[in-house]
Amino acid sequence: MEKLYTAVVTAKGGRDGHIRSSDGVIDMDMRKPKAMGGEEGYANPELLFAGAWGSCYLGALGSVGKRDGVDVSSATAEVHISFNQEGESSFQLSAELRVHIPGVDLEKAQKLADTAHKGCPYSKATRNNIDTVIKAV
């Protein structure tokens, strides 16, 4: 495996802290979401993870579309990342990716979406680790 890029982000203070990337592109306060006793108006790990996974996933979908001759340039991925309580002090993430490919029927869109999920690096990283649903909408 050849490393093409390495992102470096330093986190301090946990869910009520701060993150900063080595290049300064990301430099922001983090807070627990309001639903977990935090404040509105701040980023949290689940928001960032959803955005990162969605962006990466659409890259994989673009590769699949190009290979299969399907225009997916207007596709969207609405990524839902849930923070779930398993036990008294145990937590688990779950995910649902709702994939919309304009002009493509649902059956074909689902096949494209599933294929992209097989190749997306974020999907690979989470496979068999968190419950994930890929749903063409």
UniProtKB/TrEMBL annotation:
Coiled coil (UniProt feature): none
UniProt source species: Pelobium manganitolerans
Protein's name in the database: Organic hydroperoxide resistance protein
Annotated GO biological process: response to oxidative stress
Superkingdom of origin: Bacteria
InterPro entries: KH_dom-like_a/b, OHR, OsmC/Ohr_fam, OsmC/Ohrsf
Family per record: Belongs to the OsmC/Ohr family.
